[in-house]
Amino acid sequence: MATLVLTAVGSAFGGPIGGAIGAALGQKIDGALFAPAAREGSRLKELAVQTSSYGTQIPAIFGAMRVAGTVIWATDLIEDRAKSGGGKGRASTVNYSYRVSLAVALSSRPVARLGRIWADGNLVRGSDGALKIDTQLRFYSGHGDQQPDPLLASAEAVGQCPAHRDVAYVVFEDLQLADFGNRIPSFTFEVFERDGPLSLSALFQSLSGGDLLAESTHSIVGFAAGGANMREAIVPILNAFPVELITRDGNLVVRDVGANPDQPTQIVVAVEEDRRELDPPSHRIAPAGQIPDRVSLRYYDPDRDYQAGVQNSISKSGGRGEARLELPAVLGASSAKRLVELKAGHARYARSTLTASVVTSAILLQPGDCFLSADGKKWQIDEIEHGFGTAHIKARMAAGLVPVDQMIATPGRHIPSVDQSIGQTRIAIIDCPLIAERDTNQAALAVFAGGTEAGWKRAALSIQNAGQLIDIGGTAPQAVIGTTQNALGSHNALLIDEKSSLQIELLNGSMLLANRDTHPLASDAPVFHMGGEFIRIGRITALGANQYRLSRFARACLSDQLSAPAHAAGSLIVWLDPASARIIAATDYHIGQTITVEAQGLGDPSPVVEAAMAHGRAITPLAPVHGRARRQANGDIHLNWVRRSRLDLGWVDGVDQLMVEDREAYHVTLLADDNILRDWTVFENALHISADDYACLGIPSGSELGFSVQQIGRFTQSTPLLFGLA
Predict the structure, then answer these.
(1) CATH topology classification for 481-576
(2) What is the mean pLDDT of residues 253-262?
(3) How far is CA 677 from CA 231, 266, 674, 699, in A?
(4) What is the pTM of this model?
(5) Which of 46, 167, 221, 696 is a plausible cystine mate for 330, CB 3.0–4.6 Å?
(6) Is residue 20 pLDDT above 60, yes or no?
(7) Average pLDDT, integer, range 644-659
(8) pLDDT tens across 148-166, in order?
(9) Do 481-576 and 625-724 fold alike per CATH?
(10) Which class is 625-724 in CATH?
């Protein structure tokens, strides 16, 4: 008796995928799909780590996937050395930075486009294509007309650089490594081979080169194919999805399990064959302990930024152990839940098996066909042993439908990397007064920078000097910068402004101010700069939508202004947070010079240019205040005033301002009708002119007397305090 055994594939966990295939299928299909395994195909863990080993397999990407890629070319680390500061007996600072250029292969077949990029898990290229790191990026889709990358071609010998056709890859040129601890980070890439779902039929036909006919209605989001042959590439799909392999007209066909559920094959039980009595049909139910009580499926979840997700099916039928499936494909949580419930259901129904001999003279039976038994149960044929007009079949009970409520699932909690737009750079160059914790011997010409969007991080800075641009490094952490929404009137600088308020809107949502309600002269009161005026703020109230209301002002502080100017709506306002100040080295300019600064961030099409005058406020003492001159009864003249410090640490009752000069000293000048008659240098905040000394000056009667007092600082004198004789 001639015998042929065919096996339905994909019917159970790790089912008889490598079973015997009929000779009619031909050696081509058998060799291409079911050659002996050399090594395992792709698994989820392989796509999590970027590699650079020689001979590493590059997966073929279908649909949308997140892949680590393989480094196929790289330069050595390139060291850049920048010297800053120094001069006038001070040591300079040498800063080192490192960069590298590299090429990373993404797919061994062409793809359509490149999506997001992560470095060490942090998003460095958003969905809008904007880079959030300092580098040049070029993407090659892998099509047949692809040309060699110019950087790779220039680094290799003439004619020795391949175009890497049929390989999709990216090139990073001059990737700055400061943000990654001066090492090459681990990149992962979102790659789109197509937009929209990927049908299993299209996937099978592409992987088999058309040798495998596919009639599956299932679809996924993406798949990374790998392995030594086609068999290893498709086995994970066959094991996870409810599909089966059948033969039809000498071809191997993949179809959905139960593809024709409403048209079961009619069979007739055979009693005898060639005058030999046949065994009656036999129904067997395997022990429950032979099936798993839990089935889990690991997959890539697009709602988790393609990170691995797990869906489980837990049975209460008394099974044992856990069956684990790994699917290197991208699909939604509900689709994965449906798959795992279907697989668990198939395993439970497969406990029931039926063996019988049937008549085949009128019908052609093959593995995968369904039939109804006498009791109305549906069975699916797994194996057929053909005889003369009869066939001995082995079937399993066909799985029922999975309830809809068991197909709904969530991907679980996921905290994604925030995809924020970078926006454009905004800078303010401010000749700052002496800021706390700053060197009292250094000017403080500072650059405060921020961005119009929350994704802004930093910008490169350069200053113009004699027609040349000098690189001075990057900006400090983002400053709090905004614009005023209403006008602010002028005010006496010697009085607290309790009535005025100012509503401001910050450039982006990542800039924050803390609510406060204190005195503006408190030591921790923030100082803002607006239109050349420094303002201490006592009250800050958040209004929402990046807007705040400021009130309770100490106007024109940290300066010699006696009257605070008015400001129009739309004025730029900057919080003088020391952590956000990028101080320009004193060796890069001189006092009295107009400094032009260029800043360019990753989102700036052209540099942002601002200019400011270097006054040296931080090293210039403040003019004294409250000057008084009184003529006493004996003709003597007594002068006194109040000292001010250029380091303002706020008001503390009973405590003098900190002395930051070498000593307290003043230059006092006597004027008569605006003519200088005499000057003195005194070392206290008072001067006594006796009547005799005054008479010796020969001042004409009726002259208008005036006095000028300047504080003598370590580097220069303050502006004069002018007052007359009371």
Answers:
(1) Elongation Factor Tu (Ef-tu); domain 3 (2.40.30)
(2) 70
(3) 106, 129, 9, 8
(4) 0.73
(5) 221
(6) no
(7) 79
(8) 999 999 998 878 899 999 9
(9) no
(10) mainly beta
